[in-house]
Amino acid sequence: MRSLLLGVCRLILVTTGLLRFPDALLAASAEPIPGLASVLRSGPASDHRSADIIALYVPAGQPATPFLPAGPVSATWSGDLTVDLRGDYTFHAAFSGKLKLLINDAVVLDSEGRSPSWVDSQKVRLNKGANRIVAEYSGPQKGDSEVRVYWSGKEVPFNPIPTAALSHSTNPDIERSDRLRKGRDLFAELRCIRCHAGEGSMPELSADAPSFSGIGSRRQFGWMARWIAQPASLRTDSAMPDLFHGPDAVGQSEAIAAFLASLKTATPSAATVPAPNPEAVEAGRGLYEKLHCVACHVAPDSSEPAPGKIPQKGVRSKFAPGALAAFLRKPSEHYAWIRMPDFKLSALEATQLAAFLESVADQPSLAAPPADESILLKGKSLVSSSGCLNCHSLDLPNAFKAKPLADLKPESWTSGCLAETPSADSKAPRYALSAADRAALGAFGRSDRSSLNRHSAADFLARHSVSLHCRECHGKFEGFPAWDLLGGKLKPEWASRFITGSESRKPRPWLESRMPAFPTHGAWLAQGLATAHGLPPVAPADDAPDAELAKVGHQLVGSSGGFACISCHSVGEFGATQVFEAPGINLALSHERLQPDFFRRWLRNPVSIDPNSKMPAYFDEEGRSALSEVLGGDGPKTIRALWEYLRLGSKMPKPE
Ligand code: HEC
Ligand code: HEC
Ligand code: HEC
Ligand code: HEC
Ligand code: HEC
Predict the structure, then answer these.
(1) C-alpha to C-alpha distance for 193 and 188, rounded to whole angstroms
(2) pLDDT at residue 425, rounded to an integer
(3) Quick check: CB of 293 below 6 Å from ligand 2?
(4) Which of 15, 441, 548, 639 has the smallest CB count inside 10 Å?
(5) Which residue, 500, 589, 534, 514, is CA-closest to 58?
(6) Distance, CA of 190 to CA of 20 (rounded, Å)
(7) Atom 13 in ligand 1: which residue has the minimum CA distance?
(8) Measured in angstroms, how far is the CA atom of residue 48 from the centroid of ligand 1?
(9) Is any atom of ligand 4 closer than 6 Å to the C-beta of 91?
(10) Which of 265, 392, 393, 467 to mutate to test the pocket of ligand 3 (most atoms within 8 A of CB)?
(11) Taking Cα atoms as reference points, which of 324, 298, 299, 320 lies closest to residue 219?
(12) What is the predicted pLDDT for the residue at 273?
C-alpha cells in the first residue's frame, strides 16, 4: 500500500473550484485529472464536475448542488482506478438508495442500501495499471441521500479509494458546468447584487466591504485616492470596480479620498506606536516564515511573480501609523468577509510582524489631503451618489440606483458592466475582467439564475478552499494535517469551532505554525468537508456507552499490560512519557474531534491512511490485536474498548 500511495501521490491535484483562476488553468487539458468525472441529476437537470472521491451527502429537502433543484438525487461517477500491482480487492459501500458498481464493465455490486450498514462487493481482480470504474447511484425518494465507496485488498485495509488512485479526462459537459459555476462565483465575489438587487440564499450574496466609519484613522489619503481611481492598479484580484472614468476621474477620486481621510475615530491609534527596532524586525521576519504568510502573499523580499497572491509592498503607503499592527491582530474588525484570516497574534507578535513588513516595504508616497472645505463636500456628495454605499457602509444617504437583477435581460450580459469596450458616457462601473471571466458571467446571466437561491456546503468548500488557499498550507508543509483526510476524519462540529477560531485547544502544540481562523467562512467549510466525504453535516448521536469496555480501554492505553499509547500521546493533563518518539494528539480530544469510523480505520493501520505516520500498527493483516490476552485478541473489540475509554474525554482516568 505504501508504494501505491507514494506512487500516485506524485500526481498534481487539480482543484474543481474555479474562483478567479488564471485563465490558463481553465483551458481543456488532455492530461488525466485526479478523481472521477461525475454527473449529478435531479429531475431533468444535470450538473457535471470533477469529483475527488465517490462520496455524496445531501440532506433531505436540500439541493445536491446549486445547479439542481432539491428532490431525489442520482449520480454517476466514472474514470480509471489505477493500481501498482495486480490483485484481489473488495469494494464496500455505505449508502441509502440504490448503488451499482462496475469494474472493467463487469457489475461487481448492485444493491439497495440503508446507511450506516455496509454492503460488500464480491472479490474483484484489478489489473496492474488502469481499470475502468463506474458507480451509478440513485438516492431514496424520502430522507437524506448519501453514499461512500471504500475498498480493501491484501495490502490495502478498509479505506476510501484515494483521489490519487483515480483519474479521468475532462469533457465538454464538465467544461460547460465549470463555466456556469465560475460565473455564479464571480457574480457573488464581485458583489454585482449590491447594485443589481435580487434575492438569494447563497451565503456570499450578503458579503460586505470594508466599513468607512473611522477609515481616516486607518488608511492614508494618497493610497485611497489611487485605490479609488483604479483598484486593479494596486491589486490584480480586487473585487472592487472603477467607478470614475470621465475627464475628472482623478479629481473625483481625490475628493472622495479627502472626505474619507477626514472620517477619524476619537483616539488616533498613532498615539500608541512604539518606534521600530532591529530586534523587532528580525523577530517579525521569523514569525512571517513560521506562520507561512506566503501561502497567500507574495514574499515581501521576492521579485518573482506569484499569481493569485496578495502583494504587501505598499503597506507604508496604505496603513496609517499604528494601523498595520491593529489590522494584523484582527483583520475582520471592519470587514467580516475579508479573506485574510486571523492568526490570533499577541500584541507583541503583531508589532513585530508590522515592523518586519514596514522594513521591507516600498518607500511610501504620502500626500497630505487637501483641507479645502469645498473638496471635502464634493467628496461627501460623490460617496452618496457614485455607488460606494451599495457595498461600503457609512451613515449617509445613498442616492445611487441601478436596474434590479430581474430586469437584466439575458441578451444584455455583454453590455453595461460586461461590455468589452465600454462607451465613454456609460455610468456602469468597470471591473478588470478577463475574456474567460466575461464568458463565465455571460453563461451565468443567460441561465435562469435560480442557483443564487440554492446553497450546498460542498460547493462552498470547493470554491473557498481555492479562494482561501487552504491547500497552500495543507499538503505543502511537513507535519501539517493532510488536506484529503480532513473531511473523513473530523466531526463537523469540532471542525467548525476550529476553523472559525472559537476552539482554543491546539491539537498539535508542538508545531511552530498555527491554523489561522476564518471566522465568517468556517462553519460552511466544516459542513462541506463532511458532506463532500459522504458524511452528514451534523455528527449523528452516539450509541450507548459501555463502562466495562472503557475499563479495558483504560488498561490498553497505559504501559502496564497495554499498548503504551501514552509514550506519544498525552491524556488530558497527563503528559506523554516519551514525546521525542513522535508527538501524538492529546487523546482527551479524540472523541470530540474524530469520526468514529476514522478512529477505527486509523487504529487498524495508520500508515495506510498517512504514509508518513510514525504511529505504530497494533493489528496484524487479519486485524488481530498484538495483545492476544486482552479480549481474546479480537481486533474490532479491542479498538472499540479504546474508543469507549477515549469517549470519557476530559473525564478519562489517569492511564497506568
Ligand atoms: C456600483 C454598482 C454596480 C455594480 C457593483 C454592478 N453594476 Fe452592472 N450596472 C450598473 C449600472 C449603473 C448600469 C447601467 C449602465 C448605464 O446606464 O449605462 C449597469 C449595467 C449592467 C448591465 C447592462 C444592463 C442593460 O440592461 O443594459 C449588465 C448586464 C450588468 N450591469 C451586469 C453586472 C454584473 C454581472 C456585475 C458584477 C460583475 C455588475 N453589473 C455590477 C451598476 C452596477
Ligand atoms: C489564507 C490566506 C492568507 C494568509 C495565510 C495570510 N494572509 Fe494576509 N491577506 C490575505 C488577503 C486575501 C488579503 C487582502 C485583504 C483585503 O484587503 O481584502 C490580505 C492582506 C494582508 C495585508 C494588507 C496588504 C495590503 O497591502 O492590502 C497584510 C499586511 C497582510 N495580509 C499580512 C499577513 C501576514 C503578516 C500573514 C502571516 C501572519 C498573512 N497576511 C497571512 C490573505 C492571507
Ligand atoms: C461592488 C462593491 C464595491 C463598490 C461599488 C465599491 N467598493 Fe470599495 N471595496 C470593495 C471591496 C470588496 C473592497 C475590499 C478589497 C477587495 O476585495 O478588493 C473595497 C475596498 C475599498 C477601500 C479600501 C479599504 C480598506 O480598508 O482596505 C476603499 C478606500 C474603498 N473600497 C473605497 C470605495 C469608494 C470610495 C467607492 C465608491 C467610489 C467604492 N469603494 C465602491 C467593494 C466595493
Ligand atoms: C497558513 C497555513 C494554513 C492555511 C492557509 C490553512 N491551514 Fe488549516 N491548519 C494549519 C495548521 C498548521 C494546522 C494544524 C494546527 C494544529 O494542529 O494545532 C491546521 C489544521 C486544520 C484543521 C484541523 C485538522 C486536524 O487534524 O486537526 C482543519 C479542519 C483545517 N486546518 C482546515 C483548513 C481550511 C478549511 C483551510 C482553508 C480555509 C485551512 N485549513 C487553511 C495551517 C493552515
Ligand atoms: C510512536 C508514537 C505513537 C504511539 C505509540 C501511538 N501513537 Fe497515536 N498518533 C501518533 C502520531 C504521530 C499521530 C498523528 C498526529 C497528527 O495527526 O499530527 C497519532 C494519531 C493518533 C490518533 C488521531 C488523533 C487525532 O485527534 O487526530 C489517535 C486516535 C491515536 N493516535 C490513538 C493512539 C492509540 C489509541 C495508541 C495506542 C494504541 C497510539 N495512538 C499510539 C503517534 C503515536
Answers:
(1) 7
(2) 85
(3) yes
(4) 548
(5) 534
(6) 10
(7) 428
(8) 29
(9) no
(10) 392
(11) 320
(12) 57
Q: What is the mean pLDDT of residues 27-54?
A: 90
Contact assessment for residue 359 and residue 281, using Cβ atoms and an 8 Å cutoff: yes
What is the per-residue pLDDT across 142-201, written as a single tens digit (0 to 9) for each? 999 999 999 999 888 899 999 999 999 989 999 999 999 999 999 999 999 999 999 999
Mean pLDDT over residues 534-552, rounded? 95
Residue type at 129? G
- pLDDT of 274: 62
**Of the candidates 131, 174, 177, which has an alpha carbon nearest to the alpha carbon of residue 29?**
174
* pLDDT level of residue 1 (50, 70, 90 thresholds): very low
Q: For atom 2 of ligand 2, which residue has the closest CA?
A: 296
Q: For ligand 3, which residues put their CB under 6 angstroms from it?
A: 191, 194, 209-210, 219, 224, 227-228, 231, 238-241, 243, 256, 260, 386-388, 390-392
pLDDT, one tens digit per residue, over 64-77 is 999 999 999 999 99
* All cell numbers assigned to 511: 508545531
CA distance 510 to 508: 5
The count of other CB atoms within 10 Å of the CB of residue 471 is: 15
At residue 656, the pLDDT reads 86
Q: Whole-angstrom Cα distance, residue 261 to residue 254?
A: 10
Locus of grid cell 499592527 = 325
Distance (Å, whole) CA 325 – CA 347: 8
Chain centroid to Cα 285, Å, comes to 27
Residue of minimum CA distance from atom 41 in ligand 5:
565
Cell numbers standing for residue 385: 451618489
C-alpha 599/C-alpha 614 separation (Å) is 16
Please state whether the peptide bond connecting residue 34 to the residue before it is cis, i.e. omega within 30 degrees of 0: no
Contact 143, 61 (CB under 8 A): no
CB atoms within 10 A of CB 613: 16
- 29 falls in which pLDDT band (50, 70, 90)? low
pLDDT attached to residue 361: 93
pLDDT of 19 reads 37
What's the length of the chain?
Answer: 656
- Residue 87 — very low, low, confident or very high, per pLDDT cuts 50/70/90? very high
Determine the average pLDDT of the residues in 382-400. Answer: 97
Q: List CB contacts of 599: < 8 A, sequence separation 6 or more.
A: 590, 639, 643, 646
Top mutation candidate among 473, 549, 569, 637 for ligand 5, by most atoms within 8 Å of CB: 569
597 Cβ contact partners less than 8 Å away, ≥ 6 residues apart: 488
451 close to 66: Cβ distance less than 8 angstroms: yes
Q: Is the dihedral of CA 518, 56, 13, 432 positive or negative?
A: negative
Dihedral pair phi/psi, residue 170, rounded to 5° = -75, 165
Ligand 5 is surrounded, with C-beta below 6 A, by 481, 507-508, 557, 563, 565, 567-569, 581-582, 584-585, 589-590, 593-594, 599, 602-603, 613-616, 618, 642
Nearest-CA residue for ligand 3 atom 18 is 238
pLDDT digits (tens, 9 = 90+) for 102-115: 999 999 999 999 98
Can you tell me the distance from the alpha carbon of 638 to that of 644, in angstroms, rounded to the nearest whole number?
A: 10
Among 505, 516, 507, smallest CA distance to 479 is for 507
Please enumerate in sequence order all residues whose Cβ is within 8 A of that of 247, keeping only pairs 6 or more positions apart, or say none: none
Provide CB contacts within 8 A for 534, sequence distance 6+.
Answer: 53, 55, 56, 57, 94, 146, 147, 148
Q: Please give the number of the atom of ligand 4 that sits closest to the Cα of 529.
A: 35
- The CA 208 to ligand 3 mean position distance, Å, reads 10
- Whether residue 83 has its Cβ less than 6 Å from ligand 4: no
